[in-house]
Amino acid sequence: MVNIETCVPIRKGCDMGIKTSLVFSALVWGCSGLALAQNAAAPQDYPRRPITMVIPAAAGGGTDVVGRVLADELGKRLGQPVVVDNKSGASGMLGANAVARAAPDGYTVLVSYSTPVFYAHHMFSKVPYDIRKDFEFITQIAATSLVLMVNANVPVKNMKEFMAWAQQNKGKINYGSYGTGSPGHLMSAYLSDSRKLEMTHVAYKSEAPHIQDLSAGVVSWGMGTLAAAQPQIKAERLRPLAILGPRRLADLPDVPTMAEAGFPDPEFKTIAWFTMLAPAGTPKPILARLEKEAVQIIHSTAMKARLQVFGLEGVEGGAAQFRKDFEASNPIIDKLVKISGAKQD
Fold first, then answer.
1. Domains, the chain, with CATH or none
2. For this UniProt entry, which segments traverse the membrane (predicted)?
3. CB 110 within 8 A of CB 324
4. Mean pLDDT of the chain
């Protein structure tokens, strides 16, 4: 260690003040250098302690299930526990904002459903974070295509018959969704508006009561996830007519996509994503490690099997594909929100 007193001539009378100043400066620079060295070394031995995975939804829901499956596998690969912290509220923005404001050190990540990431800035005038500026994109985890379903008593068996029935009953038909501004609401509203069907929207607080009332005939049709609707489809209380997504679902191989059924609109290919993000400024080597491990988990046969149980499909992408899909979806989501009237102050 260099003795700073031997490097600088000291005048009598100023000895103590200058010595003190020099020693203080040396300590400041020394501590700064140590901090920089520690930060530079951090990615190499990351992680050194448990990681917090914030999920902006209540325990037991689809996002929670996806997050916990990923947390379990990620913890095994990283050699440190990944602890789930459910922070629901404000359409998922409460949890997302907590991660946006967290230290960008790789020890806090967000696993979210579509609304806080893809939809919030279209639906709400006041969003406490900027997805592009306040987050680093890590990867998409899984996607779910919605299913357009009718109550079993509705006299239609395909989309051609559905359209004829809707035209004959214009202004008389109710459809349900699992919340104002949900993907099911936005795409149902788009179908009604673009085909001049004059249908009435009934919003539910969550998917469970929506599916329950659709099965009971309180509403005639709606869009929902296969995970929630599968038991009622198997019980023949609901009849699936089409898949809103780019491909058919493995568990409903005979049900065509909307495009196959004669509805090629890109709006009907919009899917709901589960994604992983970190606070902006997280070191690139840490982001690369998280992306690598997460993508390998998503590619694994075991993970795909676990997701399929819930009607989900693993998305084999990383940060670049996530950002590309995010940007591509923006004009479509903006259009859907405006048509549905889901914009909120």
1. 49-144+272-340 (3.40.190.150), 146-269 (3.40.190.10)
2. none
3. no
4. 86
